[in-house]
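Ticket 4471: requesting a sanity check on a complex prediction with guanine. Repro inputs:
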Amino acid sequence: MKTALRADLLDFTGDPGLDDLHSPLVRWRPGHWLLIGDDGRIVAVQPEAPGDDWQRHDHAGRLLTPGFIDTHVHCPQIDVIASWGAQLLDWLETYTFPAEARHADPAVAAEAAQRFLDALLAQGTTSAVVFPTVHRTSVEALFDGAARRGMRLVAGKVLMDRHAPDALRDDVAGAEADCLALIERWHGHGRLAYALTPRFAATSTPEQLAMAGRLLQSRPDLYMQTHVAENHAEVAWVAELFPQARSYLDVYASHGLLGERSVLAHGIWLDDIDRALLRDSGAQIAFCPSSNLFLGSGLFGWAQARAAGVAVSLASDVGGGTSLSMHRTMADGYKVQAMAGTRLSAWALLHAATRGAAQALRLGHEIGSLEPGAMADLALWDWAVGPVAQRRDSLARELHERVFAWVMLGDDRNLIETWVGGQRRHARP
Ligand code: GUN
Ligand code: ZN
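Returned structure tokens:
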């Protein structure tokens, strides 16, 4: 049966900029019906109720947004979220690598994937760009779990052939064989896509980076995900390891790893030449404010990136980040930019977590909006939960004020339901 939902519909028809509170690209359709076809796609949006052949869900007075897109998050790192007292490199050694090593066990990997995907849905996140581990079994588990839930997921085997514990190290030939087998099995299977995933420049040899670059160049429909310029000590180490590179980003560029389906997490310590390179290649930066604050990595300059024409999306980076909530991520993003003198609108934040991320992933036709033809990946929210948020909501005089309070004060308590491809996949307990 075809499904229809009534709520206050909020999405974007274009990029609303960083600080324009009155952008005409905000699409606000209060009390509208969203109609979903049998194929899980949005058919229409209309003010009047559809006929009896539609199964109607009336959520008048609630907010309906596109499902969130988290463009950088680590499935196995649920196990180390909120680990005390480290910066990036010792955090990896002390907490993260030992936890990831356990995912060689298929049972551990399978259980972790289910827990992780359900946790995303429980935050209203319907799409993600994900690091599993170096183990093929953890990639299989993640793709399999996403396929069962109908989620749009981009992921790939983590590549690490040096500077990692034995249990996490691969080699060039074995890694290439694994990538090829996984691409064959999963890339383009339903809503799944494969990303070549060199963890970061420090844990891959030049030969491994070159192998990944070759694969990416031979298959432009593949994605690439990695980390770049996150932390001072990391940047200095990469400069030592690649003395001939002009910059950290140049290591990836010179190995053929930058393209319009490349997602680079962090990018805090970049210069103008790097930003021009990102813009020209069409790669995007996944801004991870919670992680950058928690690990003390630094304050990403969104306005600078935007001025240079670089696409920026928002990401939780759990377990460096401390929450899978894109509400928390947006709120942290606002605060980080405030430190740099930029006051982001609620539109900028919400756009980066929905349509903006979709566009940067070249998936704008499928996710990130409430446009007919897009998949019905949806999150249904209460505007306010609890006396403080409810009081604040009641005093909001116009839409931006109301949405900004929802962004800053909301979280998973506000989430009523998450829909993926027209199916309800999470409901508030
Ligand atoms: N750099 C290399 N690996 C990681 C990781 O797992 N998390 C973060 N935040 N940065 C990294
Ligand atoms: Zn990360």
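Notes from triage: The chain has two domains: 3-66+369-427, 68-324. Leaving this open until the requester confirms.
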